[in-house]
Amino acid sequence: MSSLNVIGRHKSPRRIIVGITGATGIVYGVRLLGVLKALGIETHLVVTKAGELTRAHETDLSADDLRAMADFAYSPGEIGAALASGSFRTMGMIIAPCTVHTLSEIATGVTSNLLTRSADVTLKERRRLVLLVREFPLHGGHLKSMLAVTEMGGIVAPPVPAFYTRPQTIEEIVDQTIGRVLDLFELEMGTFPRWGETIALTTPAKRKSAVDT
To answer: How far apart are CA 141 and CA 147, in angstroms?
Structure first.
């Protein structure tokens, strides 16, 4: 058997790049790291300086605690890291949460750090890029950046909670978003309810009401 045939049958590594920026909602990135570890997915983490500020404000985790949740962690200034090269194979990248500043850099292709460079590489290699953009309200510039990223193949996925699941805790709200994001990578989280599977309208009256509206 030739070496080319062996290489051709080699499976892509089960690894995902996780970016955390300074937008509120660092809980999404933290939970994502925990779930990916439980699923056996190798994680490569980049946290921006603003992301570190948000970590300190919104959690009790130290910088070391957060980095320890990933298999590999990098500083934003490590432009020469493996993540900056398209030859470093991954399943894709998730930025959770994603600031508008980060969104804008990705939209223009003018990247200034390892996180946005990694996102740019993810797009150019036609891999999955998912951005949990956290901003409200939005002006036209934000929407244009979202459109630009979408046209390049990225997915803009604001962490908008679903209330038909009747969540009782913040953790349930976070898990619903993380579960939907992992669906985009064909990864099954298995801990959040799905409409039509684990959730159903139980009476004809309720079913009719839902259709009528």
So the answer is: 10
CB-based contact 79:114 (threshold 8 Å): yes
* pLDDT of residue 200 exceeding 70: no
Please state whether 196 falls in left (phi above 0), alpha (psi between -120 and 50) or beta.
left
3-state SS, residue 167? coil
The Cα 158–Cα 31 span in angstroms is 16
Per-residue pLDDT, 164: 87
Within 9-139, where are the H helices? 26-38, 49-58, 63-68, 100-108, 114-124
Q: Residue 190's pLDDT is what?
A: 82
Mean pLDDT of 130-135: 97
Q: How is residue 46 written in tokens?
A: 């980049």
Residue 129 β-bridge partners: 93
Sheet holding 72-74, edge to edge: 72-74, 42-47, 15-20, 92-98, 128-133, 155-156
Mean pLDDT in residue range 51-62? 98
CA separation for the pair 203, 207 (Å, rounded): 6
